[in-house]
Records
---
Amino acid sequence: MATLRDIKSRIKGVKSTQQITKAMKMVAAAKLRRAQESVINARPYARKISELISHLITEDDMVNNPFIIQREIKNIAYVIVTADRGLCGAFNNNILKESVRQLSNNDASIPGVTSHIYCIGKKSSDFYKRREYPVAGNVSGIFSTLKYDSSLTITRELIDKYLDNSFDKIIIIYNEFKSIIQQRIVTEQFLPIPIKLNNEEGIKQIDFIFEPGQREVFNYLLPKHLKAQIWRILLESNAAELGAKMTAMDNATTNAKELIRTLQLTYNKERQAAITKEILEIVSGANAQKEG
């Protein structure tokens, strides 16, 4: 049975942990406000530029543009976006489980196709270093101070590998930010660019006049579209991670409070039992002396 000193030491340790989790929750909450604003600002731009690309595309682009044409798939790259650190609940585990599921399904259903892993975040990198899948790229340490330059570097590397036929298809798996307590795992095709034609959705096509020309505007917007999507995905994952961390630290703080209460009750019971035992020993000794 634990002694009073052991229980008191444990209460002190849990209180120290509670202070840490409470501080981490406050830090995550402060960062989350900025991250949430960045996501909200990035979504309309990324969505609109995607719509413009679908509107500007021509039949010639569908068969000649290297970013759009559907070619024979021999190498698929899965870009796995996780956090650099833990202490954010099931945030990383959910992404890794989904990526493993998709990789297993792909390997079993498509013979002759090789799956490659491109890791964004230290957790995915550490996870897949111990697996048999070839890691084609690894980027970590960017979420502590997320900058647009990081997304440009990732975009350039993915595009270069796609154009030199190292990858025939690029799929990104990440957590989309829904709310502080909710994240949604999204699987999104990055390249070749998925095109949704307006007439396929029953939407009336509007004729625009483009200056200097439709082709020039399309070629100008295409690289911006790719950069915008990667930047939005990084922002989504960053905000989702902070939301998950804030929730996890809040739960940890609440659990620590409950554990302290339980330990305090145990301590009081043990202390009361020890005092009662001492009183009984004193009374028994006094009675023995009296009888003697």
---
Amino acid sequence: MAEENQAAQGQPEGQAQDQQFSIQKLYLKDVSFESPNTPAVFADGEWQPEVNIQLNSTNQSIGQDTFEVDLKLTVTAKQNKKTAFLVELTQSGIFTIAGFDAENLRGMLGAFCPETLFPFAREAIAELVSKGGFPPLLLAPVNFNALYMQQAQQQQTATASQDTAH
């Protein structure tokens, strides 16, 4: 039965047993909420903020086949060019990832794990913003695979231009 499921999923026999992915722990590593212009910002007319979102992910090996992945988000909302609020958050996770070749492992750490962490970060940000007295901020989904591919392509281009410069 398991062999039939693997074949149906297009995986060679035995491959699924060799590969392992599991979430060991998800946690909020660091969080900060600032609202430097309250209460004046609440009286600043209709709420139409200019929202800027920056995100970055990093990872490190913390043991054999075990990795910590950090997803860092900075959300700045400005109302009439004044900072209404600033949220800085690091959502982290510990993942066990085994049996993948180096390229696929980089993809798991650079795209799949941050994608797993994002909904937890989005929920924490929405809650912080609401508790700060502002309308809920619901961040749109992010295509981490596309971001990872873009970053890998930029690194490849940078490496190629360094090689031609030498």
---
Amino acid sequence: MKVSWRGVFPAATTQFLPDHALDLKNTARHLDAMIRAGVHGMIMLGTVGENCSLEYGEKLDVLRMAIETIGRRVPVLTGVAECSTKLACRFAADARKIGVDGLMVLPAMVYKSDPRETVTHFRAVAKATDLPIMVYNNPVSYSVDITPPMFADLADEPNFVAIKESSENVRRITDLKNECGDRYLLFCGVDDLVLESIILGAVGWVSGLVNAFPGENRLLWDLATSGKMDEALHLYRWYTPLLHLDTHVKLVQYIKLAQQECGLGSEIVRPPRLPLAGKEREEILAIIHRGIATRPGKIMSV
């Protein structure tokens, strides 16, 4: 399926059973719920999907389930996050055989590569596949920054189509435009910067909180991209305390807890992550419950 690089692409969670085995049935149910809410694409095995906590074969099982569940309703991308370039190339090839429509490629995990090594890694993965690629830049989480000049260097690789910009520096949208023109399609990768990113030229949103609030997420996108900025801003102010949960080191736990409280899944995470406990859990639940109590059905008429 040809990827239309526009709109809301959930970074989908991976559901687990109480013994931490894959829960493919409930992962599939959740994917279906987000598609019915109107998302435009799906990204499996990103940071929120706990890619690095899954074994290689489990990742392929998740992708097979996603392809079967989603069919041709929306394009399916997979994260590519491996510790070596060779393994990333192998995974890109195996994902292609399963039938994914595109890749979201991360720097090599664990080792913090320098700019030359980073560019070499991405070029190698691009040459290992004919699938279109979204390059995921998240120096906050992975300590590897793909700067606008580096993207200009990578511009001759035809498989690179889009950038998920997650530096938490919204200036990067403009810097990328100035450095690379329209060479790349830009996606916001930080939930609580999405409205700003749209204004500056982002054409897509890789979202985490969409796992819990898919309807509201799609509504915000529609309002912002149709020029209804007053309504979008009103909704954004409601959503922002929840969107802040996407920018913490425990974003996976926070998002899964929100997903659970909205009746869309379980908070179970795979160790070394653990479910929230004590005061931290109470504080995050308070944010989530306030959001649920005041969600758009109530606030859009204010």
